[in-house]
Design a protein that fits this description.
By secondary structure, the protein is α/β, with parallel strands linked by helices. It has helices at 19-25, 27-30, 41-61, 74-88, 104-114, 133-139, 162-171, 191-194, 232-235, 243-281, 308-317, 337-341, 346-349, 363-382, 385-391, and strands at residues 7-8, 68-71, 95-99, 119-123, 144-148, 175-179, 198-202, 213-217, 285-288, 298-303, 320-321, 352-356. It has a seven-stranded mixed β-sheet, with helices on both faces. 47% of the residues are buried.
Length: 398
């Protein structure tokens, strides 16, 4: 956004709906509002819109249209994939492999399954947030039934070696699910080429509406329904279709498909300008996540000698909307589980800042953010006894 008093750089949390997306949705609120499950002609327009949307999204993923199932969002898709896969495969075993840096929609679902007799292996990651595929393969047991590794991390932006992980899962005949909520629409994904069996994605991360997501289920995988009570989504997800949101997600996907490479190049350049300025002009700051294998729009910093909540409040007072990590845990006083998993101590993990840009962000926005950030960090450090002790040579664990 160009208004320096309203700079939104929390696009990993949610995005603005593109005007073209909103326009595509409107007729299905006011004109073609019929229930697509009805048999009369009026409802046929809505039904066709759903199937055309399904085909659009399937094409973007290299999938078949009958492998795409609409859900209420990414968290629902994660829950469905993991719970249904575990239930469907419990005759083979009750062991699941995931990582310590997954979104809580995955971690909390795994914790739920642990209370129902499943064993979960939580893989460590390196200092950049990467899962070691060799560690993953070594963790496989005879009773392993599912591997769930996110495509790209929502906090630090690190992209995993999904193709290699998919090959390992296929080699051992284990189902492979990936939470691609952050990656979808930012990088090219071909589910067949990558060996993905189940994939979760969400509309509101790609300038589509909230309350809509998809679960890709590879043909031949027999997993049960998450919601019962109707024949929608081929008997696997009951409930009246959210037609406007489905159309909106498909339109947002179409735009992402058309602009992906140019948007990625633009955001990568802008992000690098941000990273270079912050690391050069503000001392005692580190960039979190992999420097190369990361999402184009993500910059995650750990800023020593400050507290992240105070930083965000002061940025907000200057019209800058940023975050310290996942929006789903923004009310928690605990440091990010992702930052702890990559080896940061609590006192440094507390001083985190995540800036996630969009194609609408400008270089003027970035320069304004850096200018304000420098002033805020200096002010907070001037009030910090820990920083004062550090400057006078007293011990500080980092």
């Amino acid at each position: 956004m160009t208004d320096k008093f309203n700079i939104y750089v929390d696009n990993a949390a949610t995005t603005a709906v593109y005007p073209e997306v909103f326009d595509s949705m409107k007729p299905y609120f006011t004109e073609w509002y019929g229930n697509p499950a009805s048999i009369y002609t009026f409802a046929g327009t809505a039904k066709r819109a759903i199937e055309e949307s399904r085909e659009r999204i399937a094409g973007f993923l290299g999938a078949d249209s009958n492998e795409i199932y609409f859900t209420g969002g990414g968290s629902e898709s994660d829950n469905w994939a993991i719970k249904a896969a575990a239930e469907a495969m419990n005759h083979k075993g009750r062991h699941i492999i995931t990582s310590r840096i997954e979104h809580h929609a995955v971690l909390h679902t795994c914790e739920y399954l642990e209370t129902h007799g499943y064993e979960i292996t939580y893989l460590d990651v390196n200092e950049n947030g990467k899962v070691n595929p060799a560690d993953l393969e070594a963790a496989i047991r005879e009773d392993t039934v599912l591997i769930s590794i996110m495509y790209a991390n929502n906090e630090i932006g690190t992209i995993q070696d999904i193709k290699r992980i998919g090959a390992i899962a296929r080699k051992h005949d284990i189902l492979f699910h990936t939470d691609a909520v952050q990656a979808y629409g930012q990088i090219r994904i071909d589910v067949k080429e990558l060996g993905i069996d189940l994939l979760s994605a969400s509309g509101h991360k790609i300038h589509g509406p909230k309350g809509i997501g998809i679960l890709y289920i590879r043909n031949g995988i027999k997993i049960g329904a998450l919601i019962h009570g109707g024949v929608q989504e081929r008997n696997r997800r009951a409930g009246t279709h959210n037609v406007p949101a489905i159309v909106g997600m498909a339109k947002a996907t179409e735009i992402a498909d058309q602009r992906l490479e140019q948007d990625a190049e633009y955001m990568t350049s802008l992000r690098q300008h941000l990273v270079d300025r912050v690391l050069k002009e503000i001392p005692y700051v580190r960039l979190n996540g992999d420097r190369v294998d990361r999402l184009p729009n993500n910059a995650s910093f750990s800023i020593r000698f400050i507290e992240g909540e105070s930083l965000l409040i002061m940025l907000d007072a200057r019209g800058i909307c940023a975050s310290s990590g996942s929006a789903c845990t923004s009310g928690s006083l605990d440091p990010s589980h992702v930052l702890l998993a990559i080896g940061l101590p609590h006192e440094i993990a507390h001083g985190s800042l995540r800036i996630t840009i969009s194609p609408e962000t400008t270089i003027e926005d970035i320069d304004y953010i850096v200018g304000e950030l420098k002033q805020i960090v200096k002010r907070l450090r001037d009030m910090s006894p820990i920083y004062e002790d550090y400057l006078h040579g007293q011990k500080y664990v980092c």
